[in-house]
Amino acid sequence: MKNIGISLLVIITVFISTNANSEQSPEDIIKNRQAIFSKNYNTAKRVQSLSSNGDFDEAKKLMLEMSENYKTLKEMFPDNTKEGFNTEVLPLVWEEKDKFNSLMEKASNDMVELASVIENADNIRGTLGKLMWGNCKACHSKYREEH
Question: What is this structure's pTM?
């Protein structure tokens, strides 16, 4: 029940923040997108654990939540958020906006696919690597500053 409440809060927050992007300060937009990326990373770790333990129903719910987050992220890179406020995004996101948005769409679609195949996957770890972690790596390696 607690997870449902947290999930609803995140969805509502994302919905409100997406609709209000034009009204938000650059700092708020950057912080919101960082929070969504962080949420997806933490959720991905949870998906990995749940799937490895055979708790597919809960993992699938989280996969679909991540899918929606990727769709939301496409709208969270307006021009006035290119720098400042500890953003770790490289300028390439804005130079290749269509490619970046395609990657977010692919990540979203892959999470939906993952939810449909994970339970019957012969290699759970490999399937997670291909359909979940591979998208994280593709984005980080191209569009995020190195740490």
Answer: 0.82
